[in-house]
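Weekend entry, working from home. Most of the wet-lab plans are on hold until the incubator is repaired, so I used the time to fold the two sequences that have been sitting in the queue since the last round of cloning. Logging both here for the record. First:
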Amino acid sequence: MNGETVADLADWRRRVSDLYAEIRRMPEPPQAWEHWRDTRDTLFKCHPQSAIEEAKRADFTGLNIYPYDPALRFLVTLDPVEGEALNLPAGVDGTVQALPFARTNGLQDRLGGELTLYWLGGYGGGVFLPFIDATSGSETYGGGRYLLDTVKSADLGRTEDGRTILDFNFAYAPSCAHAPRYICPLAPRQNRLPFPVRGGERS
């Protein structure tokens, strides 16, 4: 990448980080979601690092997002787990090592299962929560969506009692869902929810 591209990428990362910091300060989840939706639409429309192909940006009118559903916002506890690390394909970067470290407790009744959180290897690391559900491949991207990716600042935070906020209205598709030039780590089969999750970004 040349210097201009690197500067643009740093700016994109900074804007996304600022966005999630703003969301965590907003007291009403629906209004935070509207801010998330509108800001991302602007970034995807105008920013040089948008995953939307440049030739298509002039006609881009916004990401396809499900309406906000308060029933898809959960406060979960995390139970420690151990397991072998997964090696997720990551294009020119080779593979990304994802080590399972926690399992959610609080999704079963509504979504039919629980999800594993992974710690990404490499410099700095980060929490990664991808998932597949019954909409994947029909209503949403077939490779699944992301809910947490702290390397990219996608993190809704925790409550005062230490429970983790998982709001599936903020689920988003990886960049490879928008353009073939990207190769993204996809959700492993271990993180498949049997019920549909009609919140967040759709196809």
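Second, folded right after the first finished:
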Amino acid sequence: MPRFTRRIRIEVNGEFHEIEVDTRWTLLSVLRDELGLTGAKRGCDRGECGACTVLLDDVPINSCMALAALMDGRAVRTVESLGTAHSLNPLQRAFLENDGAQCGFCSPGFLMSAAALLESNPRPSDDEIKAALAGCICRCNAYGRIIESVRAAARQ
């Protein structure tokens, strides 16, 4: 079977990359396997759990459902863009201080969804927080702590 590829130029976390991608690859595969950015998690691989959430042109998407070949000229932000272990951003700090990440597997998706919310609405209501996070699933059932973490970040 012939393989079809396409060269794309994509901005990831402020850095430009030119990559030859198989037309069947997802954005998640390119981020993890080609660029070594493993923050976005491969959870369900069906767009249902939100563990792979990234911001595409500042809008949260499930990267497991986005074809990499369609990302030419687009800007992607992953959880790695938020901060570092030595310099957490306020949202990451709030998740840490409020125990918003129990096992942590879902945290990148929640963090990126919350980051998009707080960038567009710095003082969201609880209903707006819940709506923004609705695409993410926490298997540990830490929803109350996650919502409190976003509230705390919004207060900072």
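Plan for Monday: verify the second prediction. The helical segments are 27-34, 90-97, 107-120, 126-133, 143-155.
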